Amino acid sequence: MSTRELPFGTILVADDNEDTLELLARLLRKHGYRVLAASDGDKALDVLMHHQVDLALLDVFMPGQSGLAVCRAAKERPETRLTPIVLVTGADGVESRVEGIKAGADDFLSKPLHKEELLARVNSLIRLKRYTDELESAETVLCSLARSIEAKDPYTEGHCDRLSRAAVALAERLGLPEEIRVALRRAGIVHDIGKVAVSEHILLKPGPLDACERNIMESHTIVGERICAPLKSFRHVLPIIRHHHEHLDGTGYPDRLKGDDIPYAARVLTTVDIYDALTTERPYRKALCSAEAFAVLRKESALGWWDASLISSLEELVTAKESGKPRPAPKPASNSWIRYA
């Protein structure tokens, strides 16, 4: 297929009325779109789960799951939450639209449909989806680069993914907002991406670094921030990347921040980062068990390095996981993250 023959996008059309379904499909195909059709809510959700869809037009009232239910389910899944969804309804009034907004709908169309309005909204949302896909592609490239850096050192294998999962789990325990949890998930992967500017001689050096080498190593947080700065979706990630090596007593780097001046989300990542380092085998020592690791963390916290409250929360999570008990209920969210995230 040549470039000119490629469809402008793939659209899911879901409606239990066969005439309406055929009319919409014919119109959209005529204007260059690939159309996937579904006659009920269950089939529509199945299409969303198993196909790359750029936009979904869902009739609100369908057999099986309603358009509202399909929209809600799609917006709850990471794989489909960014897919634009337009709810098509014959119902008038504010109430039906409020329900659609609560379900996560991106737009609404009222029956009877008008060709010009339908195409204008479809074109606009498909364009928006293209921008979103570009951002996701950029994030994927950054994460791949971060993992390639990690792969240089056999002792850090899996560190990024472990850190990402642990940081999100701790954020959930602390009751932090969704946007901060997303930032921590991303930061867990890319926090050391600035090490791309550090030579392997320094990264893999078995002994202590000299003053020049240490300065180069410590620059990786600033380089990492600079690499990720063009992505606006990473605005909450950047402070974590820059400050995850700060110490509460001001002896960390790169800015020698103290106490609450250190972004709260960065302190969360630091806590799980240090724990993971202690419980992972290194060339110069064996991995510590969780009890030994937390003993070290508490000792270093007493020296003024780490956040004692975050260490306690992480210990609760690890203890619950090791004992097989369900996680404790999240604590009320602190407002302290707002100033620093």
Would you summarize the structure shown here?
This protein is of the alpha/beta class and 341 residues long.
List the helices and strands and how they pair.
Layout (H helix, E strand, L loop, with lengths): L9 E5 L3 H13 L3 E5 L2 H10 L4 E5 L7 H10 L8 E5 L4 H10 L3 E4 L4 H36 L8 H16 L3 H13 L9 H4 L7 H8 L1 H9 L9 H6 L20 H15 L11 H13 L5 H16 L12 H5 L1
Parallel strand pairs: 1-2, 1-3, 3-4, 4-5
Helix pairs in contact: 2-3, 3-4, 6-7, 6-12, 6-14, 7-12, 13-14
Distance between the termini: 47 Å
Output the number of helix runs.
15
Instruction: Say how many strands there are.
Output: 5
Q: How many distinct folded domains?
A: 2
Strands of the widest sheet, in order across it, are: 2-1-3-4-5
Q: What is the averaged pLDDT score?
A: 84
> Uncertain segments of ≥5 residues (pLDDT<50)?
1-6, 330-341
| H/E element sequence | EHEHEHEHEHHHHHHHHHHH
- Report the CATH superfamily of the largest domain: Hypothetical protein af1432
The helical percent reads 40-55%
User: What is the CATH third-level topology name of the largest domain?
Assistant: Hypothetical protein af1432
Give me the CATH architecture of the largest domain, please: Orthogonal Bundle
How would you describe the overall organization of this protein?
By secondary structure, the chain is of the alpha/beta class. The protein has 15 helices and five strands. It folds into two domains: 130 residues, Response regulator (Rossmann fold, 3-Layer(aba) Sandwich), CATH 3.40.50.2300; 190 residues, Hypothetical protein af1432, CATH 1.10.3210. Strands 2-1-3-4-5 form a five-stranded parallel beta sheet, sandwiched between helices. Helix 3 links the parallel strand 3 and strand 4. The protein is elongated, with a radius of gyration of 25 Å. The chain starts with 9 loop residues before the first strand and ends with a helix. The N terminus and C terminus are likely disordered.
